[in-house]
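Supplementary Methods S3. Input chains for the assembly prediction are listed below.
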Amino acid sequence: MSPAWAEAFRLVFDPYNVLVMLGASLFGLFVGAVPGLTATMATALLVPVTFFMAPIPAIAAIVTATAMAIFSGDIPGCLLRMPGTPASAAYTDEAYAMTKKGQAELALGAGLVFSAVGGLFGTAVLMVSAPALAEFALKFSSFEYFWLVLMGLTCAVFISTDAPLKGLTTLFIGLLIAGVGLNNPAAFPRFTFGSTELLGGIGLIPLMIGMFAVSEIIRYMVNTEGEALIVDKPIGNVFKGMWGLAVKYPKQILRGSALGTLIGALPGAGADIAAWMSYAMSKKFSKEPEKFGTGHVEGIVESGSANNSALAGAWIPALVFGIPGDSITAIVIGVLYMKNMNPGPTLFTTNPQNIYAVYLLFIIANLIMLPLGWMCIKVAKRILRVPRDILMPVILLFCIVGAFAINNTAFDVMVMLIAGLVAWLLEENGFPITPLILGVVLGAMLEDNFISSMIKADGNVLAFFGRPIAATLGALTIAIWFWPLLRRRRVRAAEAPAA
Amino acid sequence: MKLNDAVWGALLALLGAAILWHVQGFPQIPGQNVGPALFPGILAAALVVCGTVLIASGLKARRAAASSSRWAVAPEWLRSRPHLLAFAVLVASNVFYLVAVGRLGFLPTAFVYLAALMWVLRVRLAVALPVALVMALLIHYAFYKLLRVPLPWGVLQGVAW
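Predicted structure tokens for the full assembly:
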């Protein structure tokens, strides 16, 4: 074994790290299982705590908590017909229908076992593709990075939202927020209005806690829908019949995992979109599509593996290019910068033990998910009865203290609260939040590479297409921009004769 | 609060225009054609364009459908007194926290904060008050003692532990 791998094992199996992973698992399972608390929120809430940890335990906490939360989101879907996390929404009705047929253990078991399988698949892809991509990325200049970031942001707007125009506006707002302060190529204080606190820019972490946690709490406080009723049926052995399913649906498992990893790796699209897409795919290619929606396990097998594989897939662009694959890795990138583990291809050459440790963390997280998830299902009914009217105020106070803890300033608390209010208001009006967050995370990178490319190009726009990879990336990006227009024209042309 | 897209478009276009006007004052870098105003300038211009398109689509939707013809639609919670109260208390308690935490100290502020929010969510006071106290102490212990975050003591400075 190479010394870097040995060092990675030492880092991961350090007793403190093992303890952190266990704690984070329980936290993740709980947050995922409570409707209204999402996996992204789990990550945002973890950040203030991980701030005080060494890099590997900090990453371990996030990796395990999110893997667990994405699985345990299936539990309230099954018992309450309410997805615990958005990633479970795609097959909530299916799982609930199975529960009513008395097959709750089969639905939960499939969610658990194939979540772990999908997660391991995504990890394998991450381990193989990330180093190869990193080697490739070492040759990148500012032109390639400029297009790569732009393409990532473009994907986030056009692929992952159903309202591209509104996604574009929130993206521009996010990029503008990133421009506040001194941190720009000219080091000129922009949009600070004389405030010394704004010189350093608007903190990423308080912003994200606000947008992902506080906004959810506001939504809960003004939610006028009544409480859902828990299905009170005994849950048997969830592992029974799983091998049979694996033998019956090998293609579905593979397809779900592969699609999930791919969607996860696309910037802006995460586990929730992966689950929706692979559920639809499963139905389309199924031999018995008429059974979908009536309590049929096939779709759960496929999309359950997809949403967990997406988690690992999202780390590929995050580690290699510093471009987040979903909202969770957007937070992770903020944490990596705080820990001086700046993402990028050099991370693979200078500190390989850290990267190997991340792989190990993913593998362990997906393996311990099986026993811990089994335990969680055992106590599920009790978790679902946790009084959220008490929980929500406590989480809000935790957010406030957490935002304060990063820099010990009340300013960050204010940023967090305003961000929460703004995110809630925007989402109420159909403006997606993920493009905004990606804009804030990637704003500095986009501007730096844009400005240095402009200086190198010296006014010649063609220089942006002067290198083969840059030209390809640029052409692809522009093609995605015009794709909706082309498609609309084609739809119109198809409708015209009918009308 | 749901506003018509045209209203949002107008607000965003106005914001973009304001930023465009503001960045005109940014300095030029001698000998270079790119300065600190370039990037935000492009974004602000794009925001104006997006805002304008939103105005157009909002107006179109207003003409097309009678249901969305209002400029603003009040969501259900605005018409429900308990939810309206919950929102008001939510805003008020956060403002209270920001104003009071320095002088009053973390523990009393957090207690009032939690108790107020639980009260408005209709948790029984016999439950809410002790839970608020225990949770305030717990969060204080976790952050002040374990993570060494300097949460202010305020009026309890004399008995700080």
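DSSP finds 23 helices and no strands in chain A. Chain A touches chain B through 50 residues (CB under 8 Å).
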